[in-house]
Amino acid sequence: MTITITAFERSPDGGKGLARDMRVRWALEEVGQPYDVRLLSFKAMKEPAHLALHPFGQIPTYEEGDLALFESGAIVFHIAERHVGLLPDDANARARAISWMFAALTTLEPPIVDREVASYLEGDETWYEQRLSAVEERIRKRLSELSGRIGDADWLDGDFSVGDLQMVSVLLRLKRSGILDEYPNLSAYIARGEARPAYKRAFDAQLAVFTAASTG
Q1: What is the domain extent for residue 208?
Q2: pLDDT tens-digit map of 31-79
Q3: Which of 123-132, 136-145, 206-215 is most confident?
Q4: Mean of the pLDDT values across residues 170-187?
Q5: Domain holding 168: CATH number?
Q6: SUPFAM superfamilies of this UniProt entry (predicted)?
Q7: Do 99 and 31 sit in the same domain of this protein?
Q8: For residue 122, what pLDDT is reported?
Q9: Which residues have CB under 8 Å from 183's CB, separation 6+?
Q10: 3, 64 in Cβ contact below 8 A?
Q11: How many independent structural domains does the chain possess?
Q12: What's the CATH code of the domain at 12?
């Protein structure tokens, strides 16, 4: 059964690999599973056909036979459980990898997304600078904790896992902020993720969509 995922027809991330279908693409590339991509306009994302797959009208979604999933975290977890390559065989190591996956999505990502929201939507507010400072303080606290935990290790817990895939994907959202410059080991950690052949294939595939949309 062919796997089909959905993605933006015209991604607002400007081809930077930040749209959440990138995480699903990367996971599928890591486990060596082919997939098709159905591109959606913003209008189509709010129409009944897509809302039947994703009740909040977002991307990505995942379809395989009679299985339909939404939410990138759930989709990546499903891929990791079903295919070899993203979860360790050892039960305890497997549980730790899953813990790191959830940490990326529930502990690190919320303040990072808050910063993006503040930057894009609240810049004209009188309280913007104060809010931005508070959000960045929360981000630095989490990055300091993560930096201390990783130390000089290559990955979060032994070999590369789904936890690293999600963590790198989340941290990449800060790449152009300058904040990561304060944490050289985290910058090196992200660079290792970006250097993985599976990441490069996923990035190139997503960039090709943006390039085609921009020149079409």
Answers
A1: 3-85+198-215
A2: 999 999 999 999 999 999 999 999 999 999 999 999 999 999 999 999 9
A3: 136-145
A4: 95
A5: 1.20.1050.10
A6: GST C-terminal domain-like, Thioredoxin-like
A7: no
A8: 66
A9: 143, 144, 147
A10: yes
A11: 2
A12: 3.40.30.10
Strand partners, 93: none
Q: Which long-range contacts (CB under 8 A, 24 or more apart) does 155-160 make?
A: 155/189, 155/192, 156/97, 156/100, 157/93, 157/96, 157/97, 157/100, 158/88, 158/93, 159/88, 160/196
Per-residue pLDDT reduced to its tens digit, 92-132: 999 999 999 999 999 999 999 988 887 766 666 777 788 88
Six-digit token string for 180: 């990561």
Whether residues 186 and 129 fall in one domain = yes
CB 8 within 8 A of CB 59: yes
Same-domain check for residues 74 and 146 = no
Amino acid 128: pLDDT: 73
* DSSP per-residue letters across the chain: --EEEEEESS-TTTTSS-STHHHHHHHHHHHT--EEEEEE-HHHHTSHHHHTT-TTS-S-EEEETTEEEESHHHHHHHHHHHSTTSS-SSHHHHHHHHHHHHHIIIIIHHHHHHHHHHHHHSTTSTTHHHHHHHHHHHHHHHHHHHHHHHTT-SSSSSS--HHHHHHHHHHGGGTTTSGGGG-HHHHHHHHHHHTSHHHHHHHHHHHHHHHHHHH-
What is the average pLDDT score of the chain? 94
